Fold this protein.
Amino acid sequence: MKSSLAVWDDICDRCGRCCYEKYEYRGKIFYTDTPCQYLDTKTNLCKIYHQRAEIHPDCARLTPELVKAGILPDDCPYVKKTD
Ligand code: SF4
């Protein structure tokens, strides 16, 4: 049986779009074309996924509250799940 964390992680379809730099302007999030330095842009996977909290503490842990804050693309499966 999978842990609840593994089930939560399985929602991600590994598109990698949320691993690009973003900025907020007037309450809306905008994405740039600049990937996180740890994103493998060929596979769209994080190169340090299991150590990201230690190596890159600015990487936000995805929680239902953060998803509701609007930082993910509208068609991200997490957004659809928490609608
Ligand atoms: S945008 Fe959503 S589906 Fe794509 S990598 Fe990020 S969390 Fe996963």
Q: What stands out?
A: The chain has one domain: 4-82. The two ends are 26 Å apart (CA to CA). The chain has four helices and four strands.
